[in-house]
Design a protein that fits this description.
The chain has seven helices and eight strands. With 236 residues, it is an alpha+beta fold.
């Protein structure tokens, strides 16, 4: 019986490839219908959309950011709402720096990285790095998980002090200080703050990376193979 099943599987793969893809949804990368504005789902979130402004590592507004709003897939936003509710009960609010990022924004980063003489923001974001190493050390890439719509960059805001929580490092800093497990130059309290954010995000379906304490991707992202192109704008 097992041999018959194997033979049948080979026949399907070789002679009926369409059968394997039948039922899969083709996603238009310019279709924003699966996305929501995060503030519509997580009303307590604070936004500081760095790429809509000029205080970022490029030093100018990034292509594709037409409004200072955060967009995510509905699934990612729903999970973030659960994170927010948990942390709000502990005295925190979430503060978002970036969420969905259109492909043209990623392309803007790549053009900037190739323009080696442009070091306007070097003192703030990569003071110890030569700009020529940004691709090799994977600070800049031609594709980003943000473009699939279920990745978010964020931090914690303390509702008692009314200030950002001290994470021992700033958003988008290019260096080992940004690694979540970095301990050489930060305090025990700063490390604990990083873990408060990390643990809450992971409890509710988000995955961290080992180079940026602020970066999390929904584990079961709905569009794992689609890099969207529509701009960041108010959704209607």
């Amino acid at each position: 019986m097992a041999k018959k099943l194997i033979v049948m599987a080979v026949i399907v793969c070789c002679f009926f490839p369409a059968a394997l893809s039948r039922g899969k949804k083709t996603v238009d990368p310019n279709d924003s219908s699966g996305f929501v504005m995060v503030t519509d789902v997580v009303p307590d979130v604070i936004l500081e959309m760095r790429y809509f402004g000029t205080y970022n590592f490029v030093g100018t507004r990034i292509d594709g950011y037409l409004a200072p709003v955060a967009l995510l897939t509905r699934q990612a936003a729903d999970s973030l709402r659960v994170v927010s509710d948990e942390l709000k009960a502990r005295g925190y609010r979430l503060k978002i720096y970036d969420a969905y990022r259109p492909q043209c924004g990623v392309d803007h980063f790549a053009r900037w990285a190739k323009d080696i003489p442009d070091t306007l923001m070097k003192p703030y974001f990569y003071p110890r790095l030569d700009k020529s190493v940004l691709f090799d050390q994977e600070y800049i890439a031609y594709r980003s998980g943000h473009t699939r719509g279920s990745t978010v960059d964020l931090t914690l805001f303390d509702m008692v002090t009314e200030k950002e929580v001290d994470m021992g490092g700033t958003f988008d800093f290019f260096g080992e200080e940004s690694h979540p497990d970095y301990t050489k130059g930060i305090t025990v309290e700063q490390y604990r703050n990083r873990m408060v954010l990390r643990d809450a995000m992971m409890r509710h379906g988000f995955m961290p990376i080992d180079t940026e304490w602020w970066h999390f991707r929904l584990k079961n992202e709905p569009y794992p193979d689609t890099y969207f192109t529509f701009p960041v704008q108010i959704l209607k």
